[in-house]
Amino acid sequence: MPIDDATHAVARCPMVRFVDLVSGKWAIPILYRLILIDAPVRFGELQRAVAPITQKELTRQLRAFEQRGLVHRKVYAEVPPRVEYHVTPLGKTLRKPLASLAAWMETHAGDLEDAKDTA
Asked: What is the pTM of this model?
């Protein structure tokens, strides 16, 4: 298979596309927290919930989620400005897959530690 065909096949792979969607150390924790909260949340509140994330990283990740339609950002015309974020209906569809990943991690955390210790 020529390289262009292989690259195209990888780009179409649903898992590669999913990893691209949630890439970054903080992507899944932010999205999962927004799904669990399931209500509008202010930036500072979200930052505390996902600590120790930096303001810059949280902003970057929220913008990426907003561009992909997973998170909605609402700005209120107040002084000082108030901004709230909430997960969209599309973002909420990730609840079960992310909960499954969390459950898997809880179930196998000890196995992973054991494997790391014996490696």
From this structure: 0.80
